[in-house]
Amino acid sequence: MTTLAAVSSFDGHSVIFAGTDVCHEAGLALHDEANRPRFEDDIWDFTHVIGLPAQMARCTRRFDFEAITDARWRLAAKELVLAMLAPRHASVIPLPRAYRTALHLNTCAGRLGELARFFAWLGDQKVLGLEQLDTRLCEAYLAHRRYVLDEHGAVVGEQSPATRRSAAQIVVDLVNYRELFTADRVPADLRPWGGATASAVAEMPCGRSQNKTPPVEDAVLQPMLAAALYLVSALGPRAVELAREVREADRTSSCKAEGLRPAGPAPVAEFTSLLSEYERTCTPLPMLAEHHIADRLAEGWDPDDLLLPVATGVLARQAGASQFWSRWLPALRGPLEATLAVVGVEKVFARDAAEIKAADGTSSMPWTLPLHRLEAVALVGIVRTAAITALAAVSGMRASELMELRIGCRRPPEEPVPGLTRFRIGSKVVKGQPLGGTDDEWVVIEPVYRAVELAEQLHDSPQDGALLFGRFAFDVRYRWFRNWVNSRSGQRLGLAPIPDGPVNLRMLRRTLALEMAYRPGGVLASKIHLKHIAVATTEGYASRPGGAQAELLAEVNKHEGDRNLDLVLAEFRNYQQGILPAGPGARSLTEFFAHIDTKLDATAAKAPKTQRSDRDVLNLLTKRAKVLHLGPANYCWFTDPSRALCLKLAGTPTADRPLVGMCDSARCPQATHHPCHRPVWAEHAERTETFLGQLGTTRKTERTRLQADYDRALRVITEIDAASTTDEESA
């Protein structure tokens, strides 16, 4: 490896990268007419680079080196950033600890920001050159970035491990790329933190024990998703019409609309004609927004003035003038007050709102009360946020994938099987992909498909190929959405309040992953649908223990075990209250519960003052919870494979899991029915009875089969009712 000689005199130019076209060297494509940043420029503008993800903020697309005041350090920052963007450069390849894969522009923007902070801190420490950097200064900078200080310099908190890693990484990078720098370098013998990695220095958690992102709590998820779906289905079509009305009003009532007259004498004739039309159609005069009324009061208007709430500016533009001048008021006050007395004044938008059924189904009401323009725009935004929330929660798409959705992303519905419709939407996978992403498709359910359709209709400029959402801050949008649902507007529609609790796109994705993974074959389905990185996930699932897929499977199994334990505990409490199970396996389960109850009584007899907690009961129920499998209309207690009816029918008596899809719980000796299963059996009986009534007299075989099925359903319902009746109810 050739080591570059230190430059004795600094002339402001890089020995290696002088005159370099940054985008060409980094392999970034630009349109022909776009400005191409040069190495000597103090601002590298990557705004027009082809393929940048929509998620990337505008500010991170401009690398501003002017924040680094020292010319030598500014040059070092440029050389370091370009070396990270172009790892195949002839002078970068020989460096033993240089990155071998080009870093993303987002990552380089973060490194540049940390470099600027580091160099500013060195200046505050009176450090004149990087050659003065030693381990003491490295430790001091890490400590400086570790804590959060108030305005008095007192420690009020601690930064995240990611912030500490960023601080340590900058120092490590200056060491690793030392031989590349022209004007200033760290000492050749500097080994900060003994050569440890930045992650180790920052004490970054490895993340292998469990996923750090928690799922959304059920108490928050249920009302949130219910409100989002209600707004999409019930308010969505009305919001589209409201958005159209706002755009039309902006076009006709804008101060910049074509054909408006400038200042002049009061247009009495035009106003008289306009006000006559208001009276003829019984249309209320437009109302001024509250903040504009406050402005009028501040200007000296009388609070009792009848014209105080009237939007005279809107009337002026409707009459052909650019604005309403105060000198016109004496001449127009009489006609305005006369019309006001006849038609009144009201907010402009949604005056005749259509009625819809409330979310709780208790009543019907107008879908919204009359709105000012800003209120109408806000309501359209709330409906758009509802569409984003439903899409994110039910599709599981990453934030980057949501932001890459474009007008026309909905694929035509398919019907692979008669009566079964498949819906797809197209976007791009950005994570782990080359610049520009990779086109892909997501199979979604119909509510998600309709949410995307609504978002397209709400788009301000719905041209094919335009970004559907673009870059958005979901945290802010969700906070507005929750506040609206919990406000009088949301409660008027019968929406359940959404409790406080964290919700973000990662948590929604994690929640869907767990829900999908609970189902048979769900772990693999989650991997495919959520577009997990193939190498890490498939490796763990297929063979190697400890891979990402194996970790997900283990975590899902833990959640499933906890759920089963809660179900067994609930049924044991039911047993103690006299609510017994039904079905062929009821006797075995009842005997087990009686045995547990006896153990608890015996323990309590030895210590009469000790009350047994749920934890003690759970310890006794854990073994039975491990063999519980949930069927659509029963519980399967898979204690003995040789007695499982499904395995006998399938010819696999040695299998270690039941075939729940083949379960005949009315005959299997390990199946039980409980009150929670009664609605399923009742619905089945009702549908079977309907089919029986529709059969002709000649279809005797089919009638016999359905009659037996119907009788069985009634028998199961009767058994559940009989077993669920307590002694007190019988008395």
Please give a structural write-up:
There is one protein chain. The chain has helices spanning 22-26, 71-85, 105-124, 135-146, 161-176, 198-201, 218-253, 268-281, 290-298, 312-318, 329-343, 373-395, 399-403, 446-458, 474-486, 488-492, 505-517, 522-529, 534-542, 548-576, 586-606, 614-625, 645-650, 678-694, 700-724, 727-730, and strands at residues 43-45, 62-64, 147-149, 155-158, 285-286, 345-346, 355-357, 364-366, 414-417, 420-429, 438-444, 628-630, 635-637, 671-672. With 731 residues, it is mostly helical. The strands form 6 sheets. The chain has a 3-stranded antiparallel β-sheet. A hairpin with a 4-residue loop joins strand 12 and strand 13. Helix 2 (71-85) runs antiparallel to helix 3 (105-124), helix 3 (105-124) packs across helix 5 and helix 12 (373-395) packs parallel to helix 17. It is flat and about 90 Å long. Mean pLDDT is 86; it is low at 1-8, 534-549 and 607-611.
